Amino acid sequence: MLVAGCGAPAAPGSPTLDRVASSHVLRVCSTGDYRPLTALAADGTWSGIDVDMARDLAAELGARAELVRTTWATLLDDVVAGRCDIAVGGVSVTPDRAERAVFTEPYLRDGKTPIARCPDVARYGTVADIDRPGVRVVVNPGGTNERFARATFTRATIVDHPDNSTIFDEIVAGRADLMVTDAIETRWQAAQHPGVLCAVHPDAPFTDSEKAYLTPAGDPAFTGRVNTWLRTARTDGTWDRLARPWLG
C-alpha cells in the first residue's frame, strides 16, 4: 500500500498550465469570422461571445488572452502544432478533430440550417428543396459547413467563397441563393439584415451537433482545468452575461 509522502506518485503536471503561468499569456486560436461567437474587425479588434469567454478563462489563469488568427482549414493543425493553447469560436465536435486533439465538455448544442433571402424562405425548407439544379449554395472552405454541403447536395451548385465574414453578402447580392450553417449564426445574421435575410427553421435544424473548445492532446490536466472553469461559467451567470449583448 502506498502512503502519502512515502513514494506515492506525484500528480501529473500540465505543460500548458506551466507555460501560461510563466508567460502570463494564454494563446487562443480563432477564425474571427463566426459571429456571434468570434469576430475580427478590420482594425484588428476581436470580439464575440467565445472571445470574451477566452479572456475570462485567461483571467482565471492569471494571464491575458492573446488571440491568434487561424482559418477553418488550418485550425486543427494549429492546435496540434502548438501554435495556440486552445481554439474557440464555434468549433464543432467532429471525429477527425477528436482524433488529434481533445475537446472540452460541450457548451452549446446546435445544428445546420439554411439562411436565405426572406422572400425565398419557403423555397428551401428541406434538403430536397435545396438539392435541385440551379440552386446555388455558398460555402466557406475548410469547415463543417462546407463538409455538410458537399456531402448532402449533389445536384445543387456549390459556390466557394473564401471569406466567411462577407459570405452572407453573396446571398444579399443575389450571387448565391442560400447558405447552410449553424442555427446560432443564421439567427445572428438575420438580426443584422432584418427583412433581407431570414433563418429557415433554426429551431429544427437538419443536424444535431455540439460546440466545444479544442485543446492539445496529451495534457489532460489543462483540459480538466478548462472544463472546471467552463462548468462554473455556465452555471454562475458568466456565459449569460457575456452572451446577452450578442443574443439579446
Automatic annotation (TrEMBL):
Compartments it resides in: Cell envelope
Keyword Signal attached: yes
Superkingdom of origin: Bacteria
Gene3D superfamilies with a match to the protein in the record: Periplasmic binding protein-like II (3.40.190.10)
UniProtKB keywords: Signal
Main location: other
SMART domains reported in the protein's UniProt record: PBPb
Domain spans labelled Solute-binding protein family 3/N-terminal: 25-248
InterPro entries linked: SBP_3_CS, Solute-binding_3/MltF_N
Family assignment from sequence similarity: Belongs to the bacterial solute-binding protein 3 family.
Name assigned to this protein: Transporter substrate-binding domain-containing protein
Organism expressing this protein natively: Pseudonocardia alni subsp. carboxydivorans
